[in-house]
Amino acid sequence: MELDKTIKKRKSVRNFKNKKPDWRDIIECVDAARYAPMAGGRYTLKFIIIDDEKAIEKLAEAAQQEFIKEVCYIIIVCSNPGRTIRDFGKRGEIYVRQQAGATIQNVLLKIEEKGLSTCWVGHFVDEQVKRILGIPDNVQIEALLPVGYEFRKTKSKKEIDIDNILYFYKYQNKKMKKIPKMDV
Ligand SMILES: Cc1cc2nc3c(=O)[nH]c(=O)nc-3n(C[C@H](O)[C@H](O)[C@H](O)COP(=O)(O)O)c2cc1C
User: Fold this and answer.
1) Going residue by residue through the chain (184 aa), what tens digit of pLDDT does each one get?
2) Ligand 1: residue whose CA is nearest its atom 31
3) 119: domain CATH number?
4) Residues whose beta carbon lies within 6 Å of some atom of ligand 1
5) Is 135 within the bounds of a domain?
6) For a tag on the chain, would you pick the N or C end, based on fewer CB atoms within 10 A?
7) Domain-located, residue 141
8) Tally of domains within the chain
């Protein structure tokens, strides 16, 4: 699938078929994470793949989201921020979260390309997820990605109008033609 199509087709899915994806496809989706940009080239991400029914049920409870129970796989995305914060200080804390986002998007797009579906789950009780998966205190959980096959196909959402998000030369300047003198 072309990149443009994959980007536009991706959407959050919260209803899944009772059909287990091939584990090799799940690994391939995580593999896409290796290519995300990292501040100072310091790779901070870690992934846990879960296919145990009981663990999935517990994670759904930790996230307080029933639909998660429908899947056969969850990818848990974590950051180990130690080296980045050591190198970049306070700014490093921001970088760790930003590069987690870039990485998650890589994985989401690969999931879409593979014909699978997911939803970025950011709401969960950290302590509960850590306890279930044995994640140490110094590691932060970025997202849970329940992966499966979409059950009832839903339409892609409406797009955000480009006029609402794009400025030229200065914040809030929507006109492209007249180039204001840069006051820098
Ligand atoms: C940081 C973040 C956290 C999110 N957390 C949740 C969540 O806990 N549960 C959920 O159902 N969707 C969650 N979402 C998915 C958004 O609700 C979804 O992306 C948004 O409604 C836009 O829909 P789309 O993904 O289909 O474009 C999260 C998305 C992001 C980026």
Assistant:
1) 599 999 999 999 999 999 999 999 999 999 999 999 999 999 999 999 999 999 999 999 999 999 999 999 999 999 999 999 999 999 999 999 999 999 999 999 999 999 999 999 999 999 999 999 999 999 999 999 999 999 988 877 778 999 999 999 999 999 987 666 777 7
2) 120
3) 3.40.109.10
4) 11-12, 14, 65, 119-123, 157
5) yes
6) C
7) yes
8) 1
